[in-house]
């Protein structure tokens, strides 16, 4: 889920940071540039882990700042296909579920990757939001996905959509990294489903 990625980047160090120790100043500038950003095919940048090398320190004519080439390691969030992750329910509508890890919210479980057979039930006074119900066996065996506890899902795919030139009005904000998950397998879904099953077996 989390990886260390080695990156080389050339950056300009503003003059007001010249009285700060060099490695601290460069780390501050790197964090401004990379933290909470998604790099395509690399993942979501979580933290600057360390700085491996610093080169340069050139001051170009007419510029009061110095320029450095820095080699550093980033902690990035990049789940692999098939990985099992725990998340919380953020939204539930007729298209499926949207989950959140707290620091990352673009996780979707589409209808065809939900446990089957199932049905969607709208909440009172809501036109879009509701809850999904897994119809397992007898009528009384209905398992609800309502966000009461954590949901265990398997990563089905991780994509990095290209930035659209124009977005339709009232569309969802652009997501630079989207995770599609599945809960259509034994042991997946709300953790309480399987805790109850273990109690019944005992």
TrEMBL record:
Keyword Nucleus in annotation: yes
Start and end residues of each RNA polymerase Rpb7-like N-terminal domain: 8-64
GO cellular component: RNA polymerase III complex
Family annotation (Pfam families): RNA_pol_Rbc25 (PF08292), SHS2_Rpb7-N (PF03876)
Keywords: DNA-directed RNA polymerase, Nucleus, Transcription
Gene3D superfamilies: Nucleic acid-binding proteins, RNA polymerase Rpb7-like, N-terminal domain
Claim: Disulfide bond is one of the keywords in the record: no
InterPro entries assigned: NA-bd_OB-fold (IPR012340), RNA_pol_III_Rbc25 (IPR013238), RNA_pol_Rpb7-like_N_sf (IPR036898), Rpb7-like (IPR045113), Rpb7-like_N (IPR005576)
CDD domains reported for this sequence: RNAP_III_Rpc25_N (cd04330)
Domain RNA polymerase III subunit Rpc25, first and last residues per copy: 83-194
Location in or out of the cell: Nucleus
Major localization listed first in the record, in broad terms: nucleus
GO biological process, one term: transcription initiation at RNA polymerase III promoter
Family classification: Belongs to the eukaryotic RPB7/RPC8 RNA polymerase subunit family.
Function: DNA-dependent RNA polymerase which catalyzes the transcription of DNA into RNA using the four ribonucleoside triphosphates as substrates.
Protein name: DNA-directed RNA polymerase subunit
Organism from which the protein derives: Rubroshorea leprosula
Lineage: Eukaryota, Viridiplantae, Streptophyta, Embryophyta, Tracheophyta
